[in-house]
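Field log, afternoon session.

UNIT: design team B
ACTIVITY: writing a sequence onto a fixed backbone
BACKBONE:
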């Protein structure tokens, strides 16, 4: 990759622009589908634990493929990786738009994921290589502004499309844009790279796939099958064993597929831990809120999208501001303030009722997103800043892999909490309701009672899931207290004879 991007005073803005547009479309597609999940559940007749696979299946493929991106970035040009990624994404989008049964829709989503898995690490690596440490916060802030525009546009656009058209139009809308970007990339990306004789260790690839895939599948299946299912604890156990074997095998290679030596840099290790925990908490709002507002409150998809719009806009606007604040003050103070806001608002979300006003939901969600905007980019950038240049592909691949794993774990955990607590509350409410009846209730009364019990039980289950998410966010807040401002290291890990040498980037 370093041979692919020339190190000049002027960053390759043309390449960065094309990569950003591709990543924007992939990210937009992800946010488009969140509002559509209730509609997909109704039309394809699947439950919450099944439809979540459109999100967790996406993560599963990402978790399997992202560990290979460090190898791919080092071996191939930006152009080749981008074209393959956009082709796979375009094919998945076409298949998703033609799907009339859930398995085909899921297959399309997973093909989309195989493309988007390559785009984000590729773009992150180009950004790290192109900008010096002292300008990286501002550059990442602009990068965040463009990508945060996707969740700002996504829910509202999705709501409007679903209200006026079929949910498949979400895929039909993306298809021509993805194909145009693919064609533009084919003609405009012209970077070159020296041929690198580097081979992929297939046993490592298999172990990585079983390891990360097993963890993702196991946690994602927990919501539907229960934690006591052999499918759940069996795949998690297999994943842990394969992952340990994978790590031990990578430590023996001079040029590993995914270099775990990045965790020898304390700020990178800490930032990875914080972003993993924050990811787990963040999915509570993305997953639970659409179910609450549409299934329980009967709010239209359009209004559900508009509810999330101010929060997404705040996140987008704050991204470049946060980037400049990061360059000036570092990540610690931003993370502490942001996570404090996130913790408080998440616990407020654990107090939802069937009468909670629309305005209250908008304000609470917007403030929560304001808090989140101060956390993710500053924390991850601070960690990456400590890595030597040669570890950038491995650092970005590791971060993206762990984000997918933690997202799947968070989704599975919160869906499981919601489902199990809903069942528990339903039994308790039904028991109390039967006591209130004088004599034997008729069929109409029983039907009405079941509907009311179901709604109240799901509400309590959602509140319990938000409560758990609040405690998860507290863990991230505690970890953020230990953040220190990172400076770039050029030390050769494992070579103790060589002293640490500061680079010009670090001195700047």
């Amino acid at each position: 990759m370093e041979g692919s991007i020339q190190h000049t005073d002027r960053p390759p803005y043309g390449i960065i622009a094309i990569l950003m547009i591709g990543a924007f479309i992939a990210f937009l597609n992800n946010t488009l589908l969140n509002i559509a999940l209730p509609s997909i559940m109704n039309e394809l007749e699947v439950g919450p634990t099944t439809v979540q696979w459109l999100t967790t299946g996406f993560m599963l493929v990402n978790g399997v493929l992202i560990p290979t991106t460090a190898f791919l970035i080092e071996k191939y040009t930006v152009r080749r990786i981008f074209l393959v990624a956009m082709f796979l994404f375009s094919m998945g989008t076409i298949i998703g738009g033609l799907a009339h049964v859930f398995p085909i829709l899921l297959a399309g989503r997973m093909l989309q994921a195989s493309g988007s898995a390559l785009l984000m690490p590729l773009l992150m690596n180009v950004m790290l290589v192109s900008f010096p440490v002292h300008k990286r916060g501002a550059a990442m802030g602009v990068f965040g502004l463009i990508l945060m525009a996707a969740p700002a546009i996504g829910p509202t656009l999705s709501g409007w499309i679903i209200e006026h058209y079929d949910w498949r139009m979400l895929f039909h809308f993306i298809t021509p844009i993805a194909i145009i970007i693919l064609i533009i990339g084919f003609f405009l990306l012209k970077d070159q790279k020296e041929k690198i004789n580097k081979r992929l260790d297939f046993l490592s690839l298999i172990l990585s796939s079983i390891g990360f895939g097993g963890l993702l599948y196991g946690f994602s299946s927990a919501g539907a099958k229960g934690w006591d299912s052999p499918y759940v604890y069996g795949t998690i156990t297999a994943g842990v064993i394969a992952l340990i074997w994978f790590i031990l095998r990578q430590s023996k290679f001079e040029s590993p597929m995914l270099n775990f030596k990045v965790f020898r840099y304390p700020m990178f290790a800490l930032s990875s831990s914080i972003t993993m925990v924050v990811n787990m908490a963040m999915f509570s709002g993305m997953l639970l809120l659409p179910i609450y507002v549409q299934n329980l409150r009967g709010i239209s998809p359009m209004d559900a999208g508009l509810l999330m719009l101010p929060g997404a806009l705040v996140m987008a606007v704050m991204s470049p501001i946060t980037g400049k604040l990061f360059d000036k003050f570092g990540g610690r103070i931003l993370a502490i303030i942001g996570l404090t806001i996130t913790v408080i608002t998440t616990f407020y979300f654990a107090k939802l009722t069937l009468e909670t006003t629309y305005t209250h939901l908008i304000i609470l969600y917007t403030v929560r997103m304001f808090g989140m905007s101060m956390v993710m980019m500053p924390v991850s950038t601070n960690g990456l800043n400590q890595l030597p240049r040669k570890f950038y592909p491995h650092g970005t691949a590791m971060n993206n892999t762990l984000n997918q794993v933690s997202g799947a774990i968070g989704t599975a955990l919160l869906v499981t909490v919601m489902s199990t607590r809903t069942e528990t509350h339903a039994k308790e409410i039904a028991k109390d309701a039967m006591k209130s009846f004088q004599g034997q209730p008729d069929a109409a009364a029983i039907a009405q009672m079941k509907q009311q019990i179901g709604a109240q039980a799901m509400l309590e289950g959602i509140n319990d899931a938000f409560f758990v998410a609040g405690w998860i966010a507290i863990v991230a807040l505690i970890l953020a207290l230990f953040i220190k401002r990172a400076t770039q290291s050029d030390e050769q890990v494992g070579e103790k004879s060589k002293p640490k040498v500061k680079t010009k980037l670090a001195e700047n």
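LOG NOTE: The radius of gyration is 23 Å.
NEXT ACTIVITY: expression trials, pending approval
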